[in-house]
User: Fold this.
Amino acid sequence: MIAAQLMGIRELRIGDVEPPVIANATDVLVNVKVVGICGSDVHNYVGGGIGARKVAYPFIPGHEASGEVAAVGAAVSSVKPGDRIMIEPAHHCGRCDQCLAGRFNTCRKIQFLSSAGEMQGCMCEQVVVPEQNCFQIPDILSFEQAAVAEPLSIALYSVQQSIPMTPETPVAILGAGPIGLCTLMAAQSMGAQRIYITDKIPARLQVARAMGATWVGSPEQTDVVADISNQEPQGLPVVFECSGDPEALDQAVELLGPGGKLIITGIPVGSRISLNIDLMRRKELTIFNVRRQNETVAETIALLAEGNVNVDALITHRVPLSEAKRAFDLVADYADGVIKAMVCDLDQVIT
Assistant:
């Protein structure tokens, strides 16, 4: 079959690879329709990995995927050939202490699609995944919308781990990329209306404002801490850091009020971060580090299907598999107003 493969730093090759086969009774063979390019994919593309996890080349990227079931193993009962599905990329064992405690996202043996050192990704014509990783999608949802359910499920999980929200709860989201904008929608779905968003890219701030953000600002154009603090002099009860920028972490600590909660969803470039522990201690801040999502996929698909959130504005670029490198470069360079780039119609590649 045809696949996109990372061959080195910023080297992406489109070529033939061995097709996957059903090996277990609970396996599902999926014809991939759409794959979104995630920030973690870009880390692998430009840096050869994330933190201590390094890519072993050749490597197929992509985990925000949807498609159509092509075939199923003998024991599969929840999906059948022809079903439209979204693929949950995290494969948990179901037997370790973490899984038995309901913490599937920190499974001791977790394997994640397109994660360096774990599994190859979905940017290819077909993939095989376990039955438990297949979530049926209603006809009202497009394959593109279903693929965005993956980052949206992470955002929903992060909001659920934060604090109870009402229309009067002030919330800050630092970073208006796909995860930041998904966090905006997730917070709105949980009741928040006073939402402050920062980003360095004007086009993303425009989208955030159109999606209902109360205030938007660029740290390159204004003192975002001072501007938000003028409107929220008591400090914020929760800040979501969605950019992976160390400066945003410093801003978050300053913005939070006493007893506030910092939710770290963005992936930093390096393996270490630094925080103002003196200020954190005096404010008695809580930090929660998000590890993908945990059992929020079905709820996310329901939110999309019911029209409670609309992800269409996030999808700014669509390319065929043959142009996947161009899409990676757009996202890596924050070019052409890109928010979410999609590689589409992978099952229609002419070999």
